[in-house]
């Protein structure tokens, strides 16, 4: 009897990790189990693997991975020469993975995103979707501050015309082809959440509950989060600069009207005294000009970064390749 060989898609789970020694082992073992389940259900290829991107960790993240790799070849990794940031780690992991894989899942190292959802993602992929977004349907785990700022941020992005999937972080599945298209976007400042919806292709959302971090602390302090949020806006839209232009025109119009008004008042004969209003105007307009320069400076800064064409990241070492 001739055995019928069924072609199975290979899955790689990509995990960005920055000082994650407290959680890495548990996370990797859990994820391998998920893959094993999928393999036994004949949904993914037997050589499906896990790829950790060590984003310049200073702790034992890399050593833990080396140990796990000696136990199972399906644990692999790349290590950056320094900390390049979460987004670049994701890009590096995905571009490594598509060399051999047909679908790539990205998930954080702290297992805040329910790993069982990966099984649903694979089903959606097999139904013909090329991008599967993990969307959380609860935010109770976040502080009031994070929740409110996140909501406000989505609203601002929306007003500015940037399309993102609300409550979706970087937990998603992408097909090899979708990742290849993503890598055609050559900008250094990559805000994945804004760019991936631009790729097109058939996509779908799956909903899940987000849980607290397994252990360790957030690698996204407020400062980093604000920088990330601002990058998201300025790398995807020039609306802030346009808004400044429009505001500038409005201010000038207002100035002209005020000028005409004061001339008329003078001609009628009433003295136009009003030092305080004058001073306030100067402060407001001065402040407005400084903000404008700041925003424009930000864009010029971005242009400078982009024209340098520096590498997004540097890989120093590999495990399992
Ligand atoms: N991370 C990274 N580089 C960084 C910061 C974070 O690779 O510079 C990784 C981190 O190890 C984790 C993921 O990005 O796997 C998300 O970070 P974290 O869970 O700390 O963020 P939060 O969930 O608190 O927003
Ligand atoms: Mg987290």
UniProtKB/TrEMBL annotation:
The primary location reported for this protein is: membrane
Please provide, in alphabetical order, the Gene Ontology terms of the cellular component aspect for this entry.
Answer: plasma membrane
* UniProt-recorded Gene Ontology molecular function terms: glycosyltransferase activity
What are the alphabetically sorted keywords of the record?
Glycosyltransferase, Membrane, Transferase, Transmembrane, Transmembrane helix
Top-level taxonomic group? Bacteria
Q: Which SUPFAM superfamilies match?
A: Nucleotide-diphospho-sugar transferases
Q: Where, per UniProt, does this protein localize?
A: Membrane
Bilayer-crossing residues are 243-268, 280-300
Boundaries of every Glycosyltransferase 2-like domain copy: 12-182
What InterPro entries does its record include? Answer: Glyco_trans_2-like, Glycosyltransferase_2, Nucleotide-diphossugar_trans
Q: Name one Pfam family in it.
A: Glycos_transf_2
Q: How does it sit in the membrane?
A: Multi-pass membrane protein
Name of the protein described by the UniProt record:
Glycosyltransferase
Q: Write down the species.
A: Amylolactobacillus amylotrophicus DSM 20534
């Amino acid at each position: 009897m001739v055995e019928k060989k069924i072609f199975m898609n290979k899955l790689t789970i990509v995990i960005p990790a920055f000082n994650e020694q407290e959680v890495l082992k548990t996370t990797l073992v859990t994820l391998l189990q998920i893959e094993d389940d999928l393999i036994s259900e004949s949904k993914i290829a037997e050589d499906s693997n896990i790829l950790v991107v060590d984003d310049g960790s200073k702790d034992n993240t890399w050593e833990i991975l080396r140990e796990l790799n000696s136990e199972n070849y399906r644990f692999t990794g790349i290590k950056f020469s320094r900390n390049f940031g979460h987004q670049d780690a994701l890009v590096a992991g995905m571009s490594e993975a598509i060399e051999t894989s047909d679908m790539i899942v990205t998930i954080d190292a702290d297992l805040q995103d329910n790993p069982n959802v990966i099984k649903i993602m694979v089903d959606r992929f097999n139904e013909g979707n090329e991008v599967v977004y993990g969307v959380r349907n609860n935010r109770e785990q976040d502080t009031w501050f994070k929740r409110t700022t996140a909501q406000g941020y989505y609203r601002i992005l929306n007003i500015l015309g940037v399309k993102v999937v609300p409550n979706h972080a970087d937990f998603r599945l992408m097909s090899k082809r979708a990742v290849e298209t993503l890598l055609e976007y050559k900008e250094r400042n990559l805000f994945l959440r804004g760019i991936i919806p631009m790729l097109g292709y058939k996509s779908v959302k799956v909903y899940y509950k987000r849980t607290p971090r397994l252990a360790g602390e957030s690698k996204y302090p407020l400062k980093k989060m604000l920088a990330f949020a601002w990058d998201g806006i300025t790398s995807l839209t020039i609306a802030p600069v346009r808004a400044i232009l429009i505001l500038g025109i409005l201010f000038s119009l207002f100035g002209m009207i005020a000028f005409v008004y004061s001339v008329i008042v003078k001609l009628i004969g009433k003295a136009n005294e009003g030092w305080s209003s004058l001073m306030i105007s100067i402060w407001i307009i001065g402040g407005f000009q400084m903000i404008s320069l700041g925003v424009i400076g930000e864009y010029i800064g971005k242009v400078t970064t982009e024209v340098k064409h520096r590498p997004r990241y540097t890989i120093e070492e590999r495990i399992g390749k």
